[in-house]
Amino acid sequence: MDVGLIVALLLMGAFGGFAAGLLGIGGGMVLVPFITMIFTARGIAPELTIHMAIATSLATILFTSLSSVRAHHKHGAVLWPVVKLLAPGILIGSWIGPWIGKQMDSSFLAAFFGVFVAFSATQMLVGKKPAASRALPGKPGMFAAGGFIGTLSGIVGAGGGFISVPFMTWCGVRIHNAVATSAALGFPIALSGTISNIWFGWGEPGLPEYALGFIYVPALAIIVLASVIMAPLGARTAHRMPVRRLQKVFAVILYALAAYMFWKAFQ
């Protein structure tokens, strides 16, 4: 692996880790398009590029979530009872998500991801938070919500914050608590999704050397190194300053990344 590629992966990991800690988005929205670019340049089979980018991105959240949630926990912001209620559905959904993604054609998956990123960017740019119109549902409702969050996160390789944060704020949870709790939910999403991507990708024809199922281990190791360092910094920043301006900057970047994924889908 050449020095230029290592530097690119380190920078990408640092940016994704900071975004994960700051905004509770898991970093996947940023990482997947960049990893796709790198895997394409490395000559990985086109029909595997998107699937491997999503799987590798999801695996990084195993580490960034632990790093960022530790910082949030120090501030007493993580609502662990909420994590406990959502986690069972999340574990099941995150296992199913990669299987659904495997059934999708790579072009369709790229377009699906582009729509997801564009929607998330619009949500971030508008900055309109859902009104707290109800309380958190009971156990069946939380299980169903967790299943939906986990499934969609498993398909697109993200940490679930794009759904879990609005869901919790709609149910009356303070935004800082919602972001912190979303960071904690990233771990069960990544754990189940990573195992699923290894299982369903095992023995897939055309996988490169050092791939573990759909996960490309060398890229994972380098991205994680930078992400784990930057995720706590993002989490601390979220508690020290208003993030509205930074959200707008991230939104513009996400639009550009969504455009790339659409181009990748229809090229």
From TrEMBL:
The keyword Magnesium does not apply. InterPro entries: TM_pro_TauE-like. It comes from the Bacteria. Pfam families: TauE (PF01925). Signal peptide: none annotated. Keywords: Cell membrane, Membrane, Transmembrane, Transmembrane helix. The chain crosses the membrane at residues 6-36, 48-66, 78-96, 108-126, 146-167, 179-202, 214-234, 246-263. It is a multi-pass membrane protein. It is found in: Cell membrane; Membrane. Belongs to the 4-toluene sulfonate uptake permease (TSUP) (TC 2.A.102) family. This is Probable membrane transporter protein. It comes from Massilia agri. The lineage of its organism: Bacteria, Pseudomonadati, Pseudomonadota, Betaproteobacteria, Burkholderiales.
